[in-house]
Design goal:
355 residues, alpha+beta, Trna Endonuclease, Chain: A, domain 1, 2 domains, 6-stranded mixed sheet, 18% strand, globular, EC 4.6.1.16, tRNA_endonuc-like_dom_sf, nucleic acid binding, tRNA_intron_Endonuc_cat-like
Length: 355
Amino acid sequence: MMTALHSEDCQTNDLNDSFPMAIESLRFTLDNSMRIVFTGYYNGFNVEVRSVEEIALLYHMGCFGKGSASRSQPKAAQNDVTPRIMRKRQFLKRNYWFKKFDGFTGTAEANSFMKDIDGLTSKIIGDSEKRTCKDVIDLVSSDEDDAEEINLTHNSERFQNHDKEDIVVIVPNSESEEENYFANMKPKCCLNKVKIQEKLMLTPQEAFFLLYGLGCLQIVNLDNTLLNIEKCWDLFTTVDKKFVLKYIVYHYYRSKGYVVKPGIKFGGDYLLYKEGPGVTHADFIVVIKSEDKNDGWIATLGHVRMANTTVKEILIVEVIKPSERVVKLPQDLKLYSIQELLLSRNLPVTINEDD
């Protein structure tokens, strides 16, 4: 069954007001008396918030972003002296990083993450050939891990010159669910030489909404200069050709009170939550209809089956462009509108009255 929903114009902000919109998805209301301005750093792909206090407040405010070392909600910083628990494989990998990159003072380029894609591809192919009898391909351990062993000697003098935060508890790897893991566990205390800072990663749509829609975020570019609204818009539209459509849809549903998260896991563009990822499951999978995306009936049925399996509904969204020939963005975002199509799967039930 297909249901056409009422379309509305995309709300935009008044540049003379810091917090012009009443967003129901925010946990607490922002107004002009609360001069909260968060700081984000553009890293070439997305925007990261580094302050621990800002991370906690920004995520609590409206479930914005994702923790860089967490599945979704960023983990709170440990204030106690309880050592962290780490698997042996992860500990060996961090030691490998420490030996390889210790003392490195160079500045990473924006596309440095993509330079090793050929090496990663070769590693995947090589591991798959070596481990044809196994279902798991090792993408974690390095070539030096097999020859490296952990010093398991308990010596209190080793930890005297280090903070308690540097001490971690190493537990064995769990390679199979059938083995008696806890019976053979022999945890050991070791020094963690590599600390990975938890960051809040904002998508370009989330970052621009906080900058433009709420006025509570300032974005620092790669050259340590502040980006205003126009420069940020030009940067994001250059990096992502579909940023305009994605942001209009994101802004629209945020304005309606939904918590909007990426929906690639379920084959869509966005997931819509009424309360948030940590409270309830998503209610809708949003699929943005674009000119260069040819979605036939097979793709549509796939979306509907995915939504039915995960107890969700599909929203096909089309962005209606304004009739004006000359449109200046982002000032004229209010001229765009959204048309929604709700897809649901109804199974006919045949009732035999003779039974």
